[in-house]
Amino acid sequence: MRCLSFFVFILFCITAFSQEYKSYNQLLKSHVDARGKVDYKKLTASKKQIDQVLQNWQHINFYKLRPSAQLSFLINVYNLATLKAVVDHYPIKSIKDINNGKIWDEKSVLLFDKKYSLNEIENQLIRAVHKDARVHFVLNCAAISCPPLLAEALTETNLEKQLMDRTRKFILDASQNSFKKDRIVISSIFDWYQKDFGNTILFINQFRSPALPLNTMITYAPYDWKLNSQ
User: Fold this and answer.
1) From CA 11, how far away is CA 193, in angstroms rounded?
2) Within a 10 A sphere around the Cβ of 120, how many other Cβ atoms?
3) Does the pTM exceed 0.85?
4) Distance CA 88, CA 98 (A)
């Protein structure tokens, strides 16, 4: 009977996620293009829908989920909360225009009956727990130099493929990273989170060929914080 009850609970969670991710997917598909650019002006008309999705996600029993479902959920929360931050203050030219650039420290996201900041979600709930450097390519900070926002929810079923695809796509994006024979100019993300990547060259070589020599000189590109608007 316990096994049956747990099975029923899992089905409930999957159904709840399916419905709420459906609403989230509708928001993304209506406002995010194939380049990951966002129509923030249009999105401002969906503030109530954004708030409703975030509110409904509070009913998910997070701690009963498998790790991959937890990770995909947290990434979705982070990305939707970032969209909310922008539309709540729109029109702006950069997310750093919000609260004098301290938007990531505002405890504005309700999770598990507690308020978290975006920094806390990223660093305490995602990075510290899951220890997967690929998350940096699916977390979006609403800036041009951020990895493009994926126009669909991350899900437990597709998480591994989504992480691999988005990491590879970002690394091979010539607008983000430039590979020369003996020198590379890469995103500042690799600098800020070097601890997560370990040996940066070895990490990059997993997603491109030919392999870069381990002694390749690395320079980090300036970060463009202008809004990733369509």
Assistant:
1) 37
2) 17
3) yes
4) 10
